[in-house]
Amino acid sequence: METLRSRQTAALKQLLNLNQPFTQSLAVEPTWKLLIFDGYGQDIISPLLNVKQLREAGVTLHMLGLILELVSSLQDLPVPSKVPSDSGTFLWTSRAGGFLDLHLNSQRETLPDVPAVYFVSPTESNIQIICNDLRKSMYDSYYFNMIYPLPRPLLEDLALSAVEGEIVQQVQKVTDQFLAFISLEDDLFMLSRYSQTSPYSFFALNNPSASDESMNKIISSIANGLFSICITLGVVPIIKCPKNNAAERKLDQKIRDNLRDARNNLFTQENVRASHLNIHRPVLVIADRSLDLSTMLHHTWTYQAMIADILVWFF
Q: Entry's InterPro entries (predicted)?
């Protein structure tokens, strides 16, 4: 039986296979490539693919090439062990069971005969680093995979940098992957890795001093994550939530806009990954924890324990 975790894993393997259907065959030699990802990309990949599986997908080196987003989270990493070399490279043991090369000076070597697969969040800082890679013509070809949709202005920045670097023909694909969630178990996910400053904490969501801009950003991020799950599962859910729920409104609008767009409808049989369109509509329940404070004392934040206690007899 397919699960959310298995579908996200299949999507990642297809991504690593240069967005072609992934087939594991000894008779077919994989296309060897670099995998470059940011902190969020690492959080998504780590629970799903280990180093052996990355090698089988043709990844010769995986690196945290986008340094700017990681500087603020370095305190969460294990203590590094220095490599005896002049490159200033440090190694961290990753949750995938292998090693990650992290160049603290953000200078990566030019490898003009190797294709590069990027799996990153389309933030302004990340796009600027990618633009610098394009101007320097660092790799043989480029496959850009955005964790969630790339805004039009940043897409234009990428195009301009490719023109400036005279490598337009080397940019093979720019793909919105809709994978903005982290699969921890077969049917358990979270939208981001926990940290003390998590934007999805109960405090952050109910902070009276939060600005409208920051709250809109959080709500949009939640809607993007839930929309990614709908795309990955190939379902249009029935949404149940309290009235005037901001996340529900944004998610509902995203789904409606996508269904209206006949050319780019992500819920058609042709566009759902591996033709996994599901005609059965699940129920998506969005709960407001501020109306249910006592439950936090009895069950975990994820509601997983409560669902197991109450709904196990219905499955």
A: Sec-1-like_dom1, Sec1-like, Sec1-like_dom2, Sec1-like_sf
